[in-house]
């Protein structure tokens, strides 16, 4: 055991992590006192620390208003350990029209460990459902223009808009995230990624009212594995091609996902309008569908209310997309729908080892402007 002593000395002298407890900055765990400035002051302390830093949030409920945690920081590593719940104002006008609740911007080496975010979105959803005049809502947690981010064991419930957004980031690792909102809550996407490279999402459970994971323009080298999704709208690449000039989506892997009662399973969706966007190199592997309305779907004719899509043909070029070992049940007869652009047909689509069925009817597949090959058992039989 004589190796222990030098080890202890090492930690004692060299691992000096500065600690910032939000309560000592005046945060109140009572759920009603506004603790925003306490959190921001703890952040300023940690961010300016010469060593690595830890922000600690003890158990309790902390009411936070709109807050931006900005870099660049002097500290090279900030861990935010949350044992409590961060609560958004339930008044949906309180966060203004910024569209964001908690945002990290321009940071490098930030980890969030544990904790719950409570977006208190239900009154806003009700306002939207009633067709009243209401704000668009706020994304609960966003990382913008940041690098080397870890989010582990975080729960997000009842967001007003998207739950977690990764935008303009590099090297982001999310693991063991739990997302929960009502199946009919509008625009409450679970995790949204765009303009980002090297994002990994593992072992997460997502129940929400919109896409479990949505993948926007400019996403590259994305890895998604071991996800349970439902209720929700599935895992979606898109919507893409809303703009004429748009960066593409490249090298996406989605592996071992269970969809339960979702609107879609594995979806690629683009607006039916001109764009130079693209999707290239996607592997969808080992998914289980339980009563999913559209288990496999490419929809390049997205055009809500038929407005702004002059010729209904998408400019987005889709190529090299593989569906491999996808099984389970479809809630509708068309279990595989590949509806590609008439101007830019999908190329190099592979269907391999697909086994989808439907309770009381035969399943079929439907293709438009889609090219590629089928390998091994493919049921419903391939229309490629
Ligand atoms: C594709 O992305 C994965 C991470 O998801 C990465 O490991 C791999 O190197 C990337 N491939 C290419 C060709 O960039
Ligand atoms: C495929 O998915 C199932 C769960 O649906 C999982 O148990 C199994 O380990 C996965 N297989 C591989 C090779 O990842
Ligand atoms: C799917 O969801 C239903 C209802 O929410 C639940 O009863 C069922 O156990 C789930 N199935 C799986 C395989 O998780």
UniProtKB/TrEMBL annotation:
Annotated localization:
Secreted, Cell wall
Sorted UniProt keywords: Cell wall, Cell wall biogenesis/degradation, Glycosidase, Hydrolase, Secreted, Signal
PANTHER family recorded: PTHR31375
Q: What is its main location?
A: secreted
Q: What is this protein called?
A: Polygalacturonase-like
**GO MF term set:** polygalacturonase activity
Source organism of the structure: Nelumbo nucifera
Q: Where is the signal peptide?
A: 1-19
Q: Which GO terms describe its biological process?
A: carbohydrate metabolic process; cell wall organization
InterPro entries hit by this protein: Glyco_hydro_28 (IPR000743), PbH1 (IPR006626), Pectin_lyas_fold (IPR012334), Pectin_lyase_fold/virulence (IPR011050)
The active site is formed by: 233
Concerning its family, UniProt says: Belongs to the glycosyl hydrolase 28 family.
């Amino acid at each position: 055991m004589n190796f222990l002593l030098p080890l202890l000395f090492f930690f004692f002298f060299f691992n000096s992590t500065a600690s910032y407890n939000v309560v000592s900055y005046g945060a109140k765990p009572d759920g009603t006192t506004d603790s925003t400035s306490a959190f921001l002051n703890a952040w300023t302390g940690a961010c300016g620390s010469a060593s690595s830093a830890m922000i600690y949030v003890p158990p309790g409920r902390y009411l936070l208003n709109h807050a931006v945690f900005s870099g660049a920081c002097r500290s090279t590593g900030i861990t935010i350990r949350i044992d409590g719940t961060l609560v958004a104002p339930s008044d949906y006008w309180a966060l203004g029209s910024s569209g964001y609740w908690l945002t990290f911007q321009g940071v490098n080496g930030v980890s969030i460990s544990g904790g719950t975010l409570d977006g208190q979105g239900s009154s806003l959803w009700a306002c939207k459902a009633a067709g009243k005049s209401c704000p668009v809502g706020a994304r609960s947690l966003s990382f913008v223009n940041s690098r080397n981010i870890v989010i582990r064991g975080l729960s997000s419930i009842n967001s007003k808009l998207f739950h977690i957004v990764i935008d303009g980031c590099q090297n982001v690792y999310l693991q063991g995230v739990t997302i929960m909102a009502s199946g009919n809550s509008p625009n409450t996407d679970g995790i949204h990624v765009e303009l980002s490279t090297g994002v990994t999402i593992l072992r997460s459970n997502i129940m929400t009212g919109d896409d479990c994971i949505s993948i926007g323009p400019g996403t590259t080298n994305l890895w998604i594995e071991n996800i349970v999704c439902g209720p929700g709208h599935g895992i979606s690449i898109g919507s893409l091609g809303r703009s004429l000039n748009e960066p593409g989506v490249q090298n996406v892997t989605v592996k071992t996902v269970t969809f339960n009662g979702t609107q879609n399973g594995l979806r690629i969706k683009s607006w039916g309008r001109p764009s130079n966007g693209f999707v290239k190199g996607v592997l969808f592997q080992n998914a289980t569908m339980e009563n999913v309305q559209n288990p496999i779907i490419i929809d390049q004719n997205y055009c809500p209310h038929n407005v702004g899509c002059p010729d209904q043909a998408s400019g987005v070029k889709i190529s090299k997309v593989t569906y491999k070992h996808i099984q389970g049940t479809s809630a509708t007869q068309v279990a595989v729908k590949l509806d590609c652009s008439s101007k830019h047909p999908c190329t190099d689509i592979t269907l391999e080892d697909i086994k989808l069925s439907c309770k009381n009817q035969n399943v079929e597949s439907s293709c438009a402007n889609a090219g590629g090959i089928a390998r091994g058992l493919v049921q419903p039989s391939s229309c490629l």
